[in-house]
Amino acid sequence: MPAAALRGDALITRMHELIRDVPDFPSPGVGFKDITPLLADAKAFAGVVEEIASRVDGPVDLVAGTEARGFILAAPVAVALGAGFVPVRKHGKLPGPTAAEEYALEYGTATVEVHPFTVPRGARVLIVDDVLATGGTAGATIRLFEHCGAQVVGLSFLVELEFLHGRDVLAGHRVESLLAVS
Ligand SMILES: O=P(O)(O)OC[C@H]1O[C@H](OP(=O)(O)OP(=O)(O)O)[C@H](O)[C@@H]1O
Ligand SMILES: Nc1ncnc2[nH]cnc12
């Protein structure tokens, strides 16, 4: 029997309680948002999946989750929406052929990859991840799907770190975040 999902203010209050702030992880000066306690709470986990799915505007064919934490949220959202799931993986994890997109990190670059044969031209794609920080990962994920001929119809995050202005990188796209941290 599934747990009753938390909704509305009760969900947001519980998210504040359950998302852990970890100072100086993984490097000095970073305030890391740890969602593992939220995932372990059946009612809160069900609530965030339901809330992300409820904010979608129009039909979605595929929900994309970015390795690794994006997988955890995107897969149940895909099931809730009756859509397929596409894993967006870091370089070298998917057997070819792959489509790839590079993005900037604080130092150096990283690459995200997808199996293009799982993304039909014109597919309507929702991108889901736990945290929107600089927007580098999400921006590269948008480009990846656009190069496959798909249409990114929205992006949803649990937490948006507003002070890093990631939303600016995603200008022109519909961006939803359940919690904003300023
Ligand atoms: O907006 P950005 O500055 O790009 O940061 C956000 C990304 O960083 C985290 O993933 P990370 O690369 O740490 O990988 P993980 O999920 O495997 O921990 C997070 O899950 C997002 O994907
Ligand atoms: N502060 C942060 N907490 C969790 N994940 C992140 N990804 C990028 N910045 C992050």
TrEMBL record:
<protein>
    <recommendedName>
        <fullName>Adenine phosphoribosyltransferase</fullName>
        <ecNumber>2.4.2.7</ecNumber>
    </recommendedName>
</protein>
<keyword id="KW-0808">Transferase</keyword>
<comment type="function">
    <text>Catalyzes a salvage reaction resulting in the formation of AMP, that is energically less costly than de novo synthesis.</text>
</comment>
<dbReference type="GO" id="GO:0003999">
    <property type="term" value="F:adenine phosphoribosyltransferase activity"/>
</dbReference>
<comment type="subunit">
    <text>Homodimer.</text>
</comment>
<dbReference type="Pfam" id="PF00156">
    <property type="entry name" value="Pribosyltran"/>
</dbReference>
<feature type="domain" description="Phosphoribosyltransferase">
    <location>
        <begin position="41"/>
        <end position="159"/>
    </location>
</feature>
<keyword id="KW-0660">Purine salvage</keyword>
<keyword id="KW-0328">Glycosyltransferase</keyword>
<keyword id="KW-0963">Cytoplasm</keyword>
<dbReference type="InterPro" id="IPR005764">
    <property type="entry name" value="Ade_phspho_trans"/>
</dbReference>
<comment type="pathway">
    <text>Purine metabolism; AMP biosynthesis via salvage pathway; AMP from adenine: step 1/1.</text>
</comment>
<dbReference type="InterPro" id="IPR000836">
    <property type="entry name" value="PRTase_dom"/>
</dbReference>
<dbReference type="InterPro" id="IPR029057">
    <property type="entry name" value="PRTase-like"/>
</dbReference>
<comment type="similarity">
    <text>Belongs to the purine/pyrimidine phosphoribosyltransferase family.</text>
</comment>
<dbReference type="InterPro" id="IPR050054">
    <property type="entry name" value="UPRTase/APRTase"/>
</dbReference>
